[in-house]
User: Fold these one by one.
Assistant:
Number 1:
Amino acid sequence: MVKNNPFLSDTYTSIWAKHFDQGEEPIRFDFLKDVGFYKHASLPLYTNYGKTLTKGMDYNITPELARDYKKKVFLIYDVPAYFNRDTTIASDHPLKIHYSKQYPGFAIELGKYNNLNEYMLSTFSKSSRYKLNKYKKRFEACFDVSYKVYCGEITKVQYDFIFESFKNLLIKRFDDKQITNNNLNPEEWEFYYDVAYPLILEKKASLFVIYDGDNPIGVTLNYHSDAVLFDAITVFDIDYGKFHLGSVTIMKLIEYCISEKIEIFDFSKGYFDYKTRWSNKTYDFNYHILYDSASLTAKTLAFAIKSFFDFKQKLRDKNVNERLHKLTYKLKNRKTEVVTSEARYKFEDISSEPLPAGLTEIDLNLSENHKIKTQAFEFLYLNNECFKNLKAFANTAGQYYFIGNAKQVKVSPM
């Protein structure tokens, strides 16, 4: 069993209940320790507190010591296979379990590594290691970068500022992808906001933040058990995409895990390319459906639940859910949706030439200059220039000029 699973803590369950179960006390059973449940309004069905918002449920089962499972069905979401849950029940016992395999999970086992370099050597080719390290070095050279893990201590003012930035970055990211993100549903986001702060103070959660100056440009919410770091939500400013902040975030979190003797860095459920590149362990998330096989009602209900989730997973395997998220986004944003082709541009080195007269300086931090800013960041990346030294200008012909310490270019549409 995972020691000090944060999703079983009193703090997590009580705040989840406030948001999703009207603040009720969880229902607990003698045969099934640790997990709290709520009951379906009309069926003999009990579902675990947290539902799909946890990143890994765990439980102890002792059906031989209690009979309070009689005529009931128990649904436990998101049990990672690597938790090695012992659910062995005597074959002649009326309590049975169905398993429904759902999302794939990905993780990095770090127990045998002493530092990030050892892990990188064992995982990536020489050329890949060079690229990953280059991204990080370029990023740190071009901006006023700092990293901070908030775990055990954070002021409410700091927390509110980071969480507001967190939300804005997620909105920006998923507007760019034009898909709906469930985390941003108001009810769900308010839960994350309420639960993360007390868990950080209890060292059961953390916020990893990348700053450019005083501005958060990358945020990751993690949950903590004794030996596992669960990556719950991560986002970075898409303006910095050229610098691969996703990879920078993972490298810094691996360093943190190793320094804190955390053995598993868990990317949690769902398939993404970056998870397959970085992980050295794959596993399945399973839904566990426990039921009293001596009750026809419970037996039938358990089979129906398993069939339903198995069917959902088949649809998920066909990417139906991803298409649905895109459709949902389009329906919600029909009035504002504008389809544009990505503008193409070229850099012309004019370092040996004087700047033309009549140029207007541009403030790259203004929202209306967002596209110019992304071009400026590419200039920084390609030329190893620093943003604080960069000046940007425009002329009346729609051309831009980026002036760095060592190089200056004219930016023209292609």
Note: The two ends are 59 Å apart (CA to CA).
Number 2:
Amino acid sequence: MTLIAPSSSTARRVRAALDDLQARFAAGLDHLSSRHGDGTPMAPAAWLRDNGLHGGGRRLEATGTALLNRASLNVSAIHYDDLPDKRLSSATALSCIVHPAHPRAPSMHLHVSWTELRSGAGGWRVMGDLNPSIPVEADRARFLDGFARGLAGAPEGTLERALAQGDRYFAIPALGRHRGVAHAYLEQWTSGDTARDEALAVQFTETVIDTYLAVVDGALTGAPPPTGAERAAQLAYHTVYLLQVLTLDRGTSSGLLVHSQNDVGILGSLPNRVDRALLTSWLPRMDPPQDRLLQSIVDALPEASPSVLTTEVRAALAEVVRAHYQAHPEALALQARGDVLPPTVANHASERDER
């Protein structure tokens, strides 16, 4: 079935802007692949929500290339035009996760989305974080400067709020650390000026994309082959990343709970290989019932060292996370959050669902 676009003119305009941003990022990664890798370009993959009736998405992705361990740039546009009892009218998003192959090049995560409710209210979510296996202070400073330039022109205090919420959201209490080294996060962000907010969201995204591409280019220019110690540091960090995404990331769990039609795409955020034994060693640090979730995650991973996250493994992990929160809805309160708690799952529900 053909994908049906939302009726909202704002949602359609945002989709076009996010398509352009996706293309910008993909072109930059393809350039780096030609410059530092084997020239393998990003490949397209599409998915549909309810056979396209309620929208869908298009990813540009790469796995196991000379440049990229794993990368996924996903644009999605979901709507409920034919279901007026849903709180949500439309949700349009760009989610980008890049894990370079070389340990000296940092991973990154970027998300920008527009949510429009049936009431007519709307708001933006913008997130960005730099995730190095081997931290470099100059890269962190460059990313923080990118956040500042990306939010230039926003109301006073917006940058400070974004940095504070990012630090809160990407904390991993069980390990006493954060997922990355530079974080920004705004939830349900709106100044009341629709055009201004959209321009700022695009500006933020462009700036973070361009900053990241420059950081990776600098990290790989003249870089020698990775050492064994560097590869070990990368594997350990990728394992931390998986722990945060699957046990704390509210966006990931919400996506899996809302529907099961893009499980592998949602878990495109995960790197290709993790250390199963290291994950197991963290079990005593997890509070219940998240200790059971982590045990189920470990059980779903191949016993080989390292564990390779094939498409089948990603699908199994998605089902593990979904089943856990369906059985333990109270555990959703233990997930990461900023100052504003988004009612993502409830927005996809209807009054009839709750009766």
Note: The longest strand covers residues 88-100.
